[in-house]
């Protein structure tokens, strides 16, 4: 049964995910819904699935991943949970919105900080492992479900690409190292659900990603 549902939201084509816990509750990841229409689409899916959002998790706090955080907080009562090492990205989000000239709801109060690297979060009968994987942002994490072999990966590794490293807190060497150590250490059949673009697998990216591959010969590894 497919428990993870995806949406493409906002001007950045950011992917928000909804994980159905299987018990009437759900977790939203990186809420980027920015318009009334996008928010209604999200609500419609929750209604169709018969779930209520009880938790909001962030891979990182770039503008495009938090545009719906205020709305989620007021609609469902849950503040976004961020790894504390990404604080500076969080603080920067409304400033970036101003620079881009994009309307942006003020950031809500956050929920409890995400736990340390290697700690787990329960989503009904699904357990997610938190892995710190900075390089795109200073405090980026990925959420790994070992039971169903999937990763909610944010902007670390994309299908045929990688997260940009030119924004504040970005570092190409750190990003390459984390893709190798935190993602390529998983078996080939894990599916990655990234923050932009379609899903991919660890095996596919290890063999053909032009920037960071399993052989260590990618553009970012030389
Ligand atoms: Zn990002
Ligand atoms: Zn993004």
Task: Label this structure with key terms.
single chain, Metallo-beta-lactamase, Chain A, 6-stranded mixed beta sheet, 222 residues, binds zinc ion, 6 helices
Structure description:
A hairpin with a 2-residue loop joins strand 6 (120-123) and strand 7 (126-132). The strands form three sheets. The chain has a six-stranded mixed β-sheet. The protein has a five-stranded mixed β-sheet with strand order 1-2-3-4-5. A two-stranded antiparallel sheet has the order 10-11. It has six helices and 13 strands. It is globular and about 45 Å long. The longest helix has 14 residues, at 36-49. The chain is α+β, with helices and mostly antiparallel strands. It has a single domain (4-208), classed as Metallo-beta-lactamase, Chain A (4-Layer Sandwich).
Task: Furnish the topology, listing elements before pairings.
Layout: E1 4-9, E2 14-20, E3 25-29, H1 36-49, E4 52-57, H2 63-66, H3 69-76, E5 80-81, H4 87-100, E6 120-123, E7 126-132, E8 141-145, E9 150-154, E10 157-158, E11 161-162, H5 172-183, E12 191-194, E13 200-201, H6 202-208
Parallel strand pairs: 3-4, 4-5, 9-12
Antiparallel strand pairs: 1-2, 2-3, 6-7, 7-8, 8-9, 10-11, 12-13
The structure holds zinc ion (2 copies).
